[in-house]
Structure formats: C-alpha cells, structure tokens
Amino acid sequence: MVNVDTVYKTVLYILNKEQRGYITPDEFNRLGTQVQLEIFEQYFEELNQHLRIPQTDSEYANRIKNLEEKIDIFKTFLGATYDSTTTPATPYFDLPNNLHRLGTLIYNEKEIQEVNRNEYFLINKSPLTKPTESNPIYVLEGTILPVPGATLIAPNKAYVYPDSITSGVTAYYIKVPSPPIWGYTVDPTSGAYLFANNLNSNHFELHPSEQVTIILNILMYSGVVIRDPQIVQTAANMIQQDEALEKQ
Length: 248
Description:
By secondary structure, the protein is of the alpha+beta class. It has 2 domains: 4-69 and 178-247, no CATH class; 75-175, no CATH class. It contains 6 helices and 10 strands; from the N terminus they run αααβββββαβββββαα. The protein has helices at 4-17, 25-50, 63-72, 117-125, 211-225, 229-247; strands at residues 75-79, 81-83, 92-94, 99-107, 110-114, 137-141, 157-161, 169-175, 184-186, 193-195. An 8-stranded mixed β-sheet has the order 1-8-4-5-6-7-3-2, with no helix packed on it. It has a two-stranded antiparallel sheet with strand order 9-10. Strand 2 (81-83) and strand 3 form a beta hairpin. The mean pLDDT is 83.
C-alpha cells in the first residue's frame, strides 16, 4: 500500500517548487486512478516477458518472484452468485464485480474445468463426457467494467454445467485495485483543502516499492493538465530511465 496523502503532497511540492502550477484533489484522484491501473496492468505484460528469460537464484533479485509478490496483493476469492432470472431461462453465476482476471472456479472443493461454447456442445452430446457434479465444466461469457472509474473490462458470467449446480461455486481471481481517493474537507476561512483520512479516502493498493513510479507518472499527467510540456518531458525521461534499468 502507498499512502495517498504522501503522494499528493509530494506531487504538489514538486510542482510548487518549480512554480509550475497546481492540481486539485479531484484532478489528482482521476490521475491517480489512471496511473494505478496502468502500473497494475503492466505487471502481467512484464511477467510474460520475464517468464521467457532465465532468472537469477538470488532471493531478492529474482524479477519473476518480485512481480508475483506485487500481483499477490490482488489475489482473492469470493462466492459466485447464482442468477436464474434471465429470459429465456439460462441460469449462470455472477462473478465478483471487482474481478480482473479469473484464476479458477471451485465447486465443493473440486476445480471446475473451463471450456468454450463450442467445446461444451460437443462434450454435452456424449454420455461419456457429459458434465456431472463430480466433473463440472463452465463457459465464461459477458463483460463488465469492474469498479467505478475503471477502464479494464472483465468477464462477468460463468455458465456452470450440469444445471443441477446452483450454489457452492467460489471464484479465485485477481481483483482490480480500488481507485485511490484523497478525501478532503475545505477550511471555511482559508478555502484550503485539508486531508481527511476517514472521509472516503483510499490509499494506492500497489506495492510500496511503486511509490516513486506513481509520483513520476502523476507528474507526467499533471504536466498535461496544467499544459506544461517541460514537466511532461522531464517526468517521461525519468520513467524511461527507470524502465531501462529494470530491463537490464
């Protein structure tokens, strides 16, 4: 977790020190949400790349291990909700609305096998392969924007077979990070924004090691907001330097 107040005040300090401008809490919250999602989604691309590269045996320098540690923050599980109200009646399980990537579905301590719709039709034709409660299958369909302000789209419906399964399904998945929010009140005398940690505030859910990356990316976007190309270029150069070091 990265403290949202620390990030906002650092961004403001850098901007004000250079007399570049100011971003409001609402602007910061929107930029923070975008930056967090970009960093979060990049984990999966980096993991895919590093899996193809030999890694060091060092406990603290293994990049795959470090990336998995960052992703582990978002691993969770929740019971799926059975929905039989569709018309025509095609019951399915609603998956959690903060789901980003589904790991597996479990029914009565048994993993449910995922198939596509065409495979299901073939499997269901034969008595030998027809799904049973001891050997269930599911088809994943539908899309949903997981959380308010999110741009990542995830599947939201699991059609579980046989139809006799109407409860007891649990989803193990990677969730979308909750949007960071710098909650505030306004000083009635000075009009200044005052941080209110207990007023709908959310810290960044990313690993603490991402604090510098978060600040640099928000600074880059801040330069766009206040129309200062020098801030954009400086922050972008620093980000590129960090990325180059990570890929060496």
